[in-house]
Amino acid sequence: MCLAPELIGDHDGNQASLLREFAHVEDRNFWFAYRRRLIIEALSRWFPQIESFLDLSCGAGKFLDDFRTCYPAATLVAADRCVDALREVRREYGFSCLQMDPMHLPFADAFDVIGAFDVLQHAASDGIVLDQLRKACRQGGGIVVTVPHQRTRRLRGNAPRAPEARYTLPALIRKVNAAGFTVVHSQTFCTLALPLMTLSMSKQRTRPFPMAVGDHRRRGPILNDMFGGLC
């Protein structure tokens, strides 16, 4: 179902031809795998009884697939701005899919937990997105938010087509608190791997943005495992 048809065709660089290749990368790349593990561990600790979960930017759907293993009885909804991504997610995993704008969520008291993974930095107003998340959460529920840290700015070779925010942890906590949430857990990750990641990506600085999916594959299994061990 398309709830924000005006956004169709404006997918922040997502391309239908790359979605399946990205799904392969998301399944194996150390960064995605470690992030999924951290999120699910945090959810298990703070929200052990989840009956409904919305993934606000589901991408290739791998997180929801892992989440379903831990919460098999939960109602899961995959959302994204990109219709092509949602088609692939529905085909691969069978999730209920909604195309929508994170700044205009058509829900009130609807979900126990909402995941906003790398969503805020793309929004014209991260404050509006957080307010929408607060409205869509049930009483006693919560959100899980991931954003790029300020220090990862050095990993970008060229500027993206649209500005992307970077965050410090204190600044993000202030924004989340201002939206009416209470932060119960926060952390950064991959900090030990950051210097090596910077070095390995230095040759990519002259490549056009967004980085090709194949760049993640060219890192190779040995380097991928090395970075994973440093997380």
TrEMBL record:
Supply one GO BP term: methylation
Q: Does the keyword Transferase feature in the UniProt annotation?
A: yes
GO MF annotations in UniProt: methyltransferase activity
Hey, what's the signal peptide range on this chain? Answer: none
User: Pfam families, from UniProt?
Assistant: Methyltransf_23
Q: Which UniProt keywords apply?
A: Methyltransferase, Transferase
The name this protein goes by in its record: Class I SAM-dependent methyltransferase
